[in-house]
Amino acid sequence: MSVLARATALLAAFDERSPVIGVGELARRSGLPKSTVHRLCGELCSVRLLERTDDGYQLGPWLFELGELVPTHRTLSEAAQPIMEDLREATHQRIHLAVLDGVEVVYVNILGGSSMGLSSRVGGRLPAHSTGVGKVMLAYSSRSVLQARIEAGLPQLTPRTITTAENLVAEMRAIRSIGMAFDAEESHAGVSCVAAPVFGADRKIVAGLSITGPTASLDPRTMGPAVRTAAFVLSRTLRTDGI
Amino acid sequence: MSVLARATALLAAFDERSPVIGVGELARRSGLPKSTVHRLCGELCSVRLLERTDDGYQLGPWLFELGELVPTHRTLSEAAQPIMEDLREATHQRIHLAVLDGVEVVYVNILGGSSMGLSSRVGGRLPAHSTGVGKVMLAYSSRSVLQARIEAGLPQLTPRTITTAENLVAEMRAIRSIGMAFDAEESHAGVSCVAAPVFGADRKIVAGLSITGPTASLDPRTMGPAVRTAAFVLSRTLRTDGI
DNA sequence: AGGGCCGTCCCGCTCAGTGGAACGCATGTA
DNA sequence: TACATGCGTTCCACTGAGCGGGACGGCCCT
Known about the structure:
Two copies of one chain form a homodimer. By secondary structure, chain A is an alpha+beta fold. The first copy, chain A, folds into two domains: 3-66, Winged helix-like DNA-binding domain superfamily/Winged helix DNA-binding domain (Arc Repressor Mutant, subunit A), CATH 1.10.10; 71-241, 2-Layer Sandwich (Beta-Lactamase). Chain A is built from nine helices and eight strands. The longest helix of chain A is centred in the C-terminal third of the chain and has 22 residues, at 220-241. Chain A starts with a helix and ends with a helix. Chains A and B meet through helix 1, helix 3, helix 4, helix 5 and strand 4 of A and helix 1, helix 3, helix 4, helix 5 and strand 4 of B. Chain A binds a DNA duplex through helix 3.
């Protein structure tokens, strides 16, 4: 194992719930000797990837700046921002933009405060089969991606999550036939969503766009066309900008 | 120089204008031998900090995910998002949220598409003395921060940028007396802005919030109270959430 | 054919990185 | 009070991981 791998293991030890971690805990999480962790943290601080606080270390602000330079995120987010804002203003629901990374969905941009107790956050991950954006991306991806998701298992997040391969395959067909995906409380109880596919310049799927809200206030009849239109516009923008 | 320092130099070689860089160019920018760069890039790819493309390397998506976990950004952005959206909807101008890093401003969140040719982007930097958010943060920071900015020089971005220490000091006094800062085309020609200070739980300055737009359509009489109110609300939120 | 730039690969040297062990210092426990 | 257990920190002898000069083959211009 190289220095970089060790250092990366340290960075990977941080998550949503533990923004600040001490040397001992870092050693435990990464499986590295305490003295090694101690020294590596010092080095990581000196290159501004980590930061010292009174009771441990935390990820450094430079990581945030680097993260904003990541091409996939930046080009996509830049093109999507105005469209998402229009969608937000028109619907007053929560707007999600996500990409697929392996068998999981990664949220790239979210508009619409934290009005309800929704846990989705930019940079967050969820299993693709359990969300609207995830399902719509699976439906328009190559067969092997869907296969990979099925082989990785279909964890159940709510009582309504799709948990069998047959149901998922059937759902994919339905999604392709209507050009959008519905998520009826399959990821969060009480929360539904309508999602549409976003395509890049090569006509391949690159992202999923969705409108999310409390099941009661989310009318698919109006939200469906809205999100599909916005996704079309975004796809066109990407095509002309050449992505 | 350690492995980490070398690897960091490679990451630092990427910027807004060069999302994809080849081995040779990376070697040139980082000052490292080509063979070293080649091997390091391989390692960086294997830990997902970089990604191979057809014509070079680019920052990996994992960096984006890590960046979103950075505490300063995350807590601030989370609290600010709904307030910024309200401000956006009320004014239909561009809304900026920024923090101070040394003598520069770093944008943490921006709402309001790319309607005009504004170059500000999330994760981007500008000299603090030349922007509304920067000036308002300098005004409420300790004397030494202002001093550092003056010693680092006061680069001129537009004909109206403040470029002398005396003018800047006087401006600070004016800002503190009215509780907000005006930027009259000091960072971008034709673009003005009104900024207000955001304070944390310890009553220290943590961020600057601003409304930015074309000079013609930005009326300080209405925008001033709006941005001050929003900044107060955000400060209160941070205080009760304990940041 | 020649020159220049590209990415890639090899391999012997060496010093940077490693981690076990010990330390001082707060805690909580007997 | 004495002990146990956690914390972060420091030291240092060993060694193999990282280093980089140099060579190679492919590509695109003269």
